[in-house]
């Protein structure tokens, strides 16, 4: 119920907001500031909640975690190396690893696990398709499984990365076939999957054709040369110039 209440706060289903709306800062004449992702927001992240719910009590020390890292079937990088690669502290990585190991003793997460996670946190809708797309975005080497390193590196970008890092990650999510371009069909598939996952817990209630209208507005802005696809450069340039999109990057906390 609490999760549903949180989702009611989201007025738009996409990860990047609505390019057709006037940002609040424009209306009020206020200077736009990059939104900050608080610790409270991080703790609302579905994947973080899933992991920490299975974490062992905080009594074990760092040497225990290092020993656990060496014993898991798929051995990840050492904590110090992961700390250098991410924006998590060593203590946070230890907690994430304990939960990851408890949920996935093999050291790998498969797509079915992702689907179960999002079905649990978004019971009001159908999260199956979105979980599939999200899994593919995390699965960097496309081998059908996500190791601990890929998992925390992805989380680090989504929760504590720069705006540009998050936008690059979003581009990778929308680029379903990973050919370096986003088509209308790909963006529509992602947006429909998000709307399906969120169910009817959006304000205002969305019309059935809302995802398509949203995609049309995005492409009108992003597809500069009108060739029917959006490149990474077009995507980054357009998004970073749109204050509403920048502000809406906070929506990552609601659907990741």
Automatic annotation (TrEMBL):
SMART domains, alphabetized: EFh (SM00054)
A Pfam family assignment: EF-hand_8
Top-level division of the source organism's lineage: Eukaryota
SUPFAM superfamilies associated with the record: EF-hand
Keywords: Calcium, Metal-binding, Repeat
Transmembrane segments: none
Region annotation Disordered: where it falls in the sequence: 1-33
Domain called EF-hand: residue spans: 126-161, 162-197, 210-245
Protein name: EF-hand domain-containing protein
Lineage of origin: Eukaryota, Metazoa, Chordata, Craniata, Vertebrata
């Amino acid at each position: 119920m609490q999760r549903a209440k949180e989702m009611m706060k989201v007025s738009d289903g996409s990860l990047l907001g609505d390019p057709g709306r006037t940002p609040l800062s424009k209306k009020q004449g206020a200077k736009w500031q990059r939104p900050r992702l608080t610790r409270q927001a991080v703790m609302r992240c579905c994947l973080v909640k899933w992991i920490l719910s299975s974490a062992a009590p905080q009594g074990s020390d760092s040497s225990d975690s290092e020993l656990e890292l060496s014993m898991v079937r798929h051995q990840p990088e050492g904590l110090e190396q992961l700390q250098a690669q991410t924006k998590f502290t060593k203590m946070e990585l230890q907690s994430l690893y304990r939960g990851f190991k408890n949920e996935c003793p093999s050291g790998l997460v498969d797509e079915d696990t992702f689907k179960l996670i999002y079905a649990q946190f978004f019971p009001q809708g159908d999260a199956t398709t979105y979980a599939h797309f999200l899994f593919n975005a995390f699965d960097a080497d496309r081998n059908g499984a996500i190791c601990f390193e890929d998992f925390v590196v992805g989380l680090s970008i989504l929760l504590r990365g720069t705006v540009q890092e998050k936008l690059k990650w979003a581009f990778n999510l929308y680029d379903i076939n990973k050919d370096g371009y986003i088509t209308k069909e790909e963006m529509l598939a992602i947006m429909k999957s998000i709307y399906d996952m969120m169910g009817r817990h959006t304000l205002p209630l969305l019309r059935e054709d809302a995802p398509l209208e949203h995609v049309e507005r995005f492409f009108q802005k992003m597809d500069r040369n009108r060739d029917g696809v959006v490149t990474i450069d077009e995507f980054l340039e357009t998004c970073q110039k749109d204050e509403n999109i920048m502000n809406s990057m906070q929506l990552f906390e609601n659907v990741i």
